[in-house]
């Protein structure tokens, strides 16, 4: 085959692959590949088309915006067409985009851009006539979509009439419908209970919920909408930039993006970086940021290609999901005895991290996904937590796959496992894995946080016979350490120092380090603050524990039985003998008059500390933190572009303070 023939062959292959993926993504709401792979295929196609224009056909996927219209709903023509966005992938691409804009505008001065989040939902168009909601539709192929007016009307954040005194006579809007994480979890749980297959991600759930013939179903599943663009507008107002436009839309009562910013190239980079690192603070998915020329006249000058505007581009975050093959499943025994399935994968790079293993959580997950060894699976990496297996691509199932065998006996100690709903548990208190995991947890960051000890050192010390229980950690000597392989004098000193630094430990941290069932960071703090000393805790009955605010009977029972177990008492006594002192909780004395008993809510991103740090400070000084604004809220601390909470606080007359004012209140003003 000559060169051009082989290129043509590859080109045809790409076209049919992309069409297949498009069909599955847009029409069936069932993506077969992750975005990064899709983008790579599209780039390869565009590259061939650029080099060999004769190969390009009129109906090439590069010429189409998205999926085809399906016939369940009536067709709506989009005027103007609903365009897509071009993508950039690097700072270099950003500079190229900026250069192209400057060239198009014949300008050398810095361009002011507006920056928004790229919502990972479904694009929709909405029409208002004389301030009244008339119609809502899907994007379809960009030229025409489906009429989903009734469904859009059920969205709680979608106004049915516009407010204010300069309502346009005709207004078409573009926005995104999406599902928040809480609602996604609730919906999937419900589907699981009804033995329906759960949605793979909030985007699919939003798509499935929006394209329901019965609008009642859409209404039951709380979807949200955000309006980020005007399609066309007839009004006697003249608005010259995006900033004013969004403010105007907001005044009309429309839900506009809560986090936006304006600036030039450096600010764009900062915005991108910030949201890439902090997107977990949002309760919805975003997959990048969108950069738009702020000035509307400049947008007109730049115009558009058949596919996308020249004045805007999307800068996506590196993929957090990827598709790979499941090779085997291990069963690991945790410190509480729960045996968790862990997937071993063909190693794959997800957003710069090589992933080899993924969590399967529990047995239901295996059943729910219908997963088999040899399957193609979708793996997701979120924050620092271990990657999670989220879906099985059954279309790609090879001929030889094997079922996953659920063990009947503990893989560590061989004792019979007990089935507890979705979990299997090893009940043997002597089980080696349980003991090892208890030790590893005790020294970890979440627990005692012994800086120079890690899980590997724990394994080595236990194998050397130095660690029978957690109290032995405080009996480790430098000589013990120096007997281990690969242990130098300096490192041994550091380890001893870090153990010593924890010999005096606040009660709350001590409680959470013990690994008591149902007692995490939050509950440990509440209990510690209420009982103030370990001695008091020993003397408490279940009923006394239940009196503590936020402590229910499950927690009360596990705390009670933990402290009324002879082994626990012996271990704690041993620790005390080894020089550990448990500091009584002194939070009450640290209380600041202006903070004590006051209820704080935070919104937006803070500049000086993380949300968690700020909340910890409020609690340390005797205040309370709540996640939502109500009449009881005393202060709403508004960080960088807070959204709906601000509005609610405004309506309820809650005191809204800036981050600087908050710093002053807690005595940390700069
Ligand atoms: S503006 C004419 N802004 O991303 C430009 N789009 O990959 C219209 N999207 O089709 C799009 N967040 O569905 C714009 N803040 C945002 C967005 C956004 C998400 C979606 C939209 C678009 C797709 C392109």
Please give a structural write-up:
This protein has 25 helices and 24 strands. Helix 24 (644-652) links the parallel strand 23 (635-638) and strand 24. The protein is globular, with a radius of gyration of 29 Å. Strands 2-11-10-3-9 form a 5-stranded mixed beta sheet. Strands 14-13-12-15-16 form a 5-stranded antiparallel beta sheet. A 4-stranded antiparallel beta sheet has the order 5-4-7-8. 37% of the residues lie in helices and 21% in strands. Helix 12 (432-443) crosses helix 13 (455-463). With 670 residues, it is of the alpha+beta class. Bound molecules: 2-(butylsulfanyl)adenosine.
The major β-sheet equals: 5 strands, mixed
Main sheet strand line-up: 2-11-10-3-9
Q: What is the tally of helical segments?
A: 25
Ends distance: 72 Å
**What is the 3D shape?**
globular
Mean pLDDT across all residues, rounded? Answer: 88
